[in-house]
Amino acid sequence: MANETLILGATGKTGKRVAEKLHKMNIPIRSGSRNGTPPFDWDIPDNWNAVLNGIKKVYITYQPDFVAPGALEKIQRFVDVAKQSGVQQLVLLSGRGEKEAEEGEAIIMTSGLHWTIVRASWFMQNFSEFFFLDNILGGQIIVPKPKALEPFVDLDDLADVVVETLMDDRHKGKIYELTGPELLSFRDTIRIISNVINRPIGYEEVDMDSYVKMLRDYQIPEDIIWLMQYLFTEVLDGRNESIRNDIEEVLGRKPTTFHEYAIKANQTGVWNIS
């Protein structure tokens, strides 16, 4: 189908939300994932022409992170193929205050195509869909001692912003930084979740070496261990300890608080102990 919007990472945390919202708006989409038709894989560029055929807009997410070896080269190659295929608009999910992410942004911004950059702080849903879910279910969370507070952002807010940038031309050429409305420590987030689920959750901060050993003992994949080290040592160093109003600017409403997110997540039963 012509004029479809391609959603890279369409089965991931942000991509699936963007895809669902566009589908509800009757906007034709193409799933950019290994299970898509045709399949998309960052490591198989021979498939990219088929994936991009007839596409005018692309939402780009890169996994696992811009700091991964070869990430920037793959993004550059993808943008080149997209341009040759007739794509007109790119929306990139990026990180706040990350050098490698800014280099990825530069590739998009100098592509000659219409672009929007969406920089996100840490996802609230990391506590209910990924990193910390098992810890919460187990009643104990252990993290490296963070150096700063974080304005955690709700993924539904983020997806709403991405949809707006894809649908409204006024967002072209803009960089948005998405944060929640409050600066929180990890201890704060666990206290809020504990209060919402009415169940105690232990909280402990350890040094990085102990944290890495713990992850390896649990047989966590090395790429995830590496990413967690990077996030806790490089990103959570105070550079992003600020709140922005970009969500309200784009959506005309206040961003979701962590307490509101926790109530919403708890209603799904994700933190129930069977």
UniProtKB/TrEMBL annotation:
Record Gene3D superfamilies: NAD(P)-binding Rossmann-like Domain, UDP-galactose 4-epimerase, domain 1
Residue ranges of every copy of the NmrA-like domain listed in the record: 106-262
Entries under InterPro entries matching the protein: Ergot_Alk_Oxidoreductase, NAD(P)-bd_dom_sf, NmrA-like
PANTHER family for this protein: PRESTALK A DIFFERENTIATION PROTEIN A (PTHR43162:SF1), PTHR43162
The protein, known as: Uncharacterized conserved protein YbjT, contains NAD(P)-binding and DUF2867 domains
Lineage: Bacteria, Pseudomonadati, Bacteroidota, Sphingobacteriia, Sphingobacteriales
